[in-house]
TrEMBL record:
<dbReference type="Pfam" id="PF13302">
    <property type="entry name" value="Acetyltransf_3"/>
</dbReference>
<protein>
    <submittedName>
        <fullName>GNAT family N-acetyltransferase</fullName>
    </submittedName>
</protein>
<feature type="region of interest" description="Disordered">
    <location>
        <begin position="162"/>
        <end position="183"/>
    </location>
</feature>
<dbReference type="InterPro" id="IPR000182">
    <property type="entry name" value="GNAT_dom"/>
</dbReference>
<feature type="domain" description="N-acetyltransferase">
    <location>
        <begin position="14"/>
        <end position="150"/>
    </location>
</feature>
<dbReference type="InterPro" id="IPR016181">
    <property type="entry name" value="Acyl_CoA_acyltransferase"/>
</dbReference>
<dbReference type="InterPro" id="IPR051531">
    <property type="entry name" value="N-acetyltransferase"/>
</dbReference>
Length: 183
């Protein structure tokens, strides 16, 4: 039996945000096996990474939104996962970003995060979104700041522990509704 789920594709100046799939498992598993995954529930075995990838895909079915695989235009190789996330136990919809090994420091998380936020406001009709950041994850906090988010309290998750809530500007606080407003 086959099941078809339509996940929209987003495009920015440098990136394509597309549906996650099996073809992404290699870089996904490599990321989750590395210390870079410490802030997002890793490190994980290959079996754990498989379950995490299945959760990312299943989130789209359960919530009607989710995170995209990020690729650089001209290549279909996954460089990260960015998008909207609100699993059970989350305080509200989040824009989350994970860049895979070797792809950090290029502005991809900020660019893809802005596209995800535009989607949240213009397509989903959300009026606010957050990003959850582990207190020691300075790089992720910097991405939130570049996107205009402000530290707005703290949250303790039953499995992930203490996290900071970074609140993004709402659609009315941005200069216009297009992605260029977030760059």
């Amino acid at each position: 039996m086959s099941y078809t789920l339509t996940i929209p594709t987003l495009e920015t100046d440098r990136l394509i945000l597309r549906a996650p799939g099996r073809q992404d498992f290699g870089p996904f598993a490599e990321f989750y096996a590395s210390p870079r995954a410490d802030f997002v529930g890793g490190p994980l075995t290959a079996e754990g990474a498989w379950r995490m990838l299945a959760m990312e895909i299943g989130h789209w079915t359960l919530k009607g939104f989710g995170r995209w695989t990020v690729t650089v235009k001209g290549s279909d190789k996954a460089v990260g996962m960015v998008g909207l996330f609100e699993p059970e136990g989350w305080p509200e919809p989040e824009i989350g970003w994970d860049l895979f090994n070797g792809h950090e420091g290029k502005g991809y998380a900020t660019e893809a995060g802005a596209a995800a936020r535009t989607y949240a406001y213009t397509v989903l009709g959300l009026h606010t979104v957050i990003s959850l950041v582990k207190p020691a994850n300075v790089g992720s906090a910097r991405v939130a700041q570049r996107l205009g988010a402000r530290h707005d309290g703290d949250f303790v998750h039953e499995r992930h522990g203490p996290m900071q809530i970074w609140r993004h500007p709402g659609p009315d606080d941005l200069t216009d509704g297009g992605m260029e407003a977030y760059a």
